[in-house]
Amino acid sequence: MAATQVLRSEWTKIRSVASTVWTLSLAAVLTIALGVLISILSRNEFKNMSVKEQMGFDPTFISFAGMSLGQLAMIVFGVLVVSNEYSTGMIRTSLAAVPQRGTFLFSKIAVATLLAFVVGLATSFIAFFLGQAMLGSYKAQIGDPGVLRAVIGGGLYMTLIAVFSMGVASMLRSPMLSLGILMPFFFLISNILGAVSATKKIGRFLPDQAGSKIMQVVPPVGDDTPYGPWGGLLIMVIWVVVALFFGYLLLKKRDA
Amino acid sequence: MIELEGLTKRYGEKLAVNNLTFAVRPGIVTGFLGPNGAGKSTTMRMMLGLDNPTAGDVRIDGKHYAQLKDPLTYIGALLDAKAMHGGRSAFNHLLCLAQSNGIPRARVAEVLDTVGLTPVARKKAKGFSLGMGQRLGIAGALLGDPRILMFDEPVNGLDPEGIHWIRNLMKSLAGQGRTVFVSSHLMSEMALTADHLVVIGQGHLLADTSMSDFIEQNSRSYVRLRSPQQERLLDVLHEAGITVVEAGNGTLEVDGGSPEKLGELAATHQLVLHELSPQQASLEEAFMRLTAETVEYHAHTDEPGMTPPVQEPPLARPGWGESWDRAKDEGAR
């Protein structure tokens, strides 16, 4: 079984369902539109901010504010790419065609990851430039130290969110169950843990909080995060690898 | 050639498939028959490496399924008609399968034409009727031009024209020397298509025999008699040394009797007959007798306390135990 055959097959699969286009374009539109909106609001609010807030003002990160919502569409993309197979019964046809389950799963994930990266990176660049245009005199330049890293990092962040969701969906199989766990996890639990000082130290090791560090250029005043931008991304990568590993292990053992 | 050896699948306490040993040979249609829940689909999924057997082994041309390079070119299977993504077009569904096994793109159009789905090739599969879904599944099975074909309940949901088409398709595939393995819960369907029969009930092998042997051993011919003078008729028959079974509702059944002789006998004794008819027990009845004890979900149409609907066969069935032994011997070899 040549892996290139399976990669080509998975590409046909992913481009031939409507959910791919919907989820990815929704992720891009939400991230960009919300980023633009919040950039406009921030420019108008800047004068009213405290000195401390003005010191920690991070125009690059502000333009990525839409990602908190856009990542949810990325999660749906990642979940559907994998769980579609199970919810439709296609998995039996797929595994009869490709009985090497590792090749099957990782080809699927490789194709979906590449697509998520292309869309994520484009989204990140567009969100940055449009966001900066809205920020007027407070804007950052792409050539400023750390900015290009943050913009590329934005693309990596969106990609890794999608891949993490693929891993979780490989474990849970059901799209409803996967979304029912991932959505509140990223939208509520992570935020709640991060907001309460007692749990903040745990919260910042969650994949989204650790990973989003890569998009920061100016750290908030008094920031005591024990890892830098790449360290944060590494923590996120570890979460992704663990999710994929268990997803693979379960697929390997389970009856289809 | 598919060979099963001691194939067993256990779900918790329940044995879904119990120690199945048989071989599916090329050049003929082999029917895989059993009531609902007998373990047919589980067996087929294990053949394709989808479910892991608890014990035992399946080999396709001597290899495990996972060892086949481009498996769709060895064995094509229709498991269930809805094992596909409804949002994908028929063409793309087949294309992704073809690509994964290195099958040329042109073959997709060919099989779509074979199953008659060319006009709807670009339509999404979710809009398909059950019969069209079944045809698309069959197209997927034919895609790799495999030597072995496996169909799980292929006539389900097909209209009479479709049923006719699939029967001919299976026969012609077997005629080309391919191995054709088809499951059904309908004996009547098998009688029309299968050359060989494998019967299971509650996961056990009940018979592994040629269709003609099965018909010979299991079809019972008898003569049905009805008479207003039943008591006298019984006496007369007893005197003539003819074994009679009272079948209820005032009818008598004589196994293997000749209607001519029985009629003449009645005339000699001046008995009035309301019915004198030769009867042939259907294969469906034979199948039901064979699997009666193993049917998992009995429907109870009779009132409680009445006699069970399936009677013990009045005739001993020499032979079907033999085939079971023969199967065991074959497996041992």
Folded structure, characterized:
Chain A is mostly helical. Chain A has one domain (16-253). In chain A, 79% of the residues lie in helices and 0% in strands. Chain A has twelve helices and no strands. Chain A has helices at residues 3-15, 18-45, 51-55, 59-63, 67-88, 90-97, 101-135, 147-172, 175-195, 197-203, 207-212, 229-253. In chain A, helix 1 crosses helix 7 (101-135), helix 5 packs across helix 6 and helix 8 packs across helix 9. Chain A starts with a helix and ends with a helix. The mean pLDDT of chain A is 93. Chain B contains eleven helices and 13 strands. With 333 residues, chain B is α/β, with parallel strands linked by helices. The model of chain B is unreliable at 302-333 (pLDDT under 50). In chain B, the strands form three sheets. Chain B has a six-stranded mixed beta sheet with strand order 5-6-7-3-8-9, sandwiched between helices. Chain B has two domains: 2-217, P-loop containing nucleotide triphosphate hydrolases (Rossmann fold); 221-280, Alpha-Beta Plaits. Chain A: Keywords: Membrane, Transmembrane, Transmembrane helix. Chain A: This is ABC transporter permease. Chain A: The chain crosses the membrane at residues 21-41, 61-83, 104-130, 150-172, 179-198, 230-251. Chain A: Pfam families: ABC2_membrane_4. Chain B: Residues 300-333 are annotated as: Disordered. Chain B: Belongs to the ABC transporter superfamily.
